[in-house]
Amino acid sequence: AKGASMFFICLFIHVGRGIYYGSFMLNETWNIGIILLLTTMATAFVGYVLPWGQMSFWGATVITSLLSAIPYIGTTLVEWIWGSFSVDKATLTRFFAFHFILPVIITALVLVHLLFLHETGSNNPSGLNSDSDKIPFHP
């Protein structure tokens, strides 16, 4: 739990740095980063449910029930995530699967994020373009 907390602290510092330096103006890189943040939060949530204690059960019930507020598809989406009409063993099985699949998606998103970052370049505190100071990594 401490490792996950430290990871999210670093992630939030990274997002804060991006906001402070104006990195949100690089739309593709920023949008992939936000999708990456949300996917990481989803992975942490399904991992929180896996011990299947009282806190996990009610956390899964309350948080997934929030999706029922989405117009038209909310209740269907909640029933699909639950695997039945309430949180039970099918939900736990699905959350195990999500917890296994989402890190693969996160890895792919990190690679795409780095690809866009390589194309656009990163921001610096001075806000100056540092292209003249760069040494090419490959020809």
Automatic annotation (TrEMBL):
GO terms for biological process: mitochondrial electron transport, ubiquinol to cytochrome c. PROSITE patterns: CYTB_NTER (PS51002). The keyword Protease does not apply. It is found in: Mitochondrion inner membrane. It is a multi-pass membrane protein. Keywords: Electron transport, Heme, Iron, Membrane, Metal-binding, Mitochondrion, Mitochondrion inner membrane, Respiratory chain, Transmembrane, Transmembrane helix, Transport, Ubiquinone. InterPro entries: Cyt_b/b6_N (IPR005797), Cytb/b6-like_sf (IPR027387), Cytochrome_b_N_euk/bac (IPR048259), Di-haem_cyt_TM (IPR016174). It holds the Pfam family Cytochrome_B. It comes from the Eukaryota. Residues 1-126 form the Cytochrome b/b6 N-terminal region profile domain. Its main location: mitochondrion. The chain crosses the membrane at residues 7-24, 30-50, 57-83, 95-117. One of its GO terms (cellular component) is mitochondrial inner membrane. GO terms for molecular function: metal ion binding; oxidoreductase activity; quinol-cytochrome-c reductase activity. Gene3D superfamilies: Cytochrome Bc1 Complex, Chain C. The cytochrome bc1 complex contains 11 subunits: 3 respiratory subunits (MT-CYB, CYC1 and UQCRFS1), 2 core proteins (UQCRC1 and UQCRC2) and 6 low-molecular weight proteins (UQCRH/QCR6, UQCRB/QCR7, UQCRQ/QCR8, UQCR10/QCR9, UQCR11/QCR10 and a cleavage product of UQCRFS1). This cytochrome bc1 complex then forms a dimer. Component of the ubiquinol-cytochrome c reductase complex (complex III or cytochrome b-c1 complex) that is part of the mitochondrial respiratory chain. The b-c1 complex mediates electron transfer from ubiquinol to cytochrome c. Contributes to the generation of a proton gradient across the mitochondrial membrane that is then used for ATP synthesis. This is Cytochrome b.
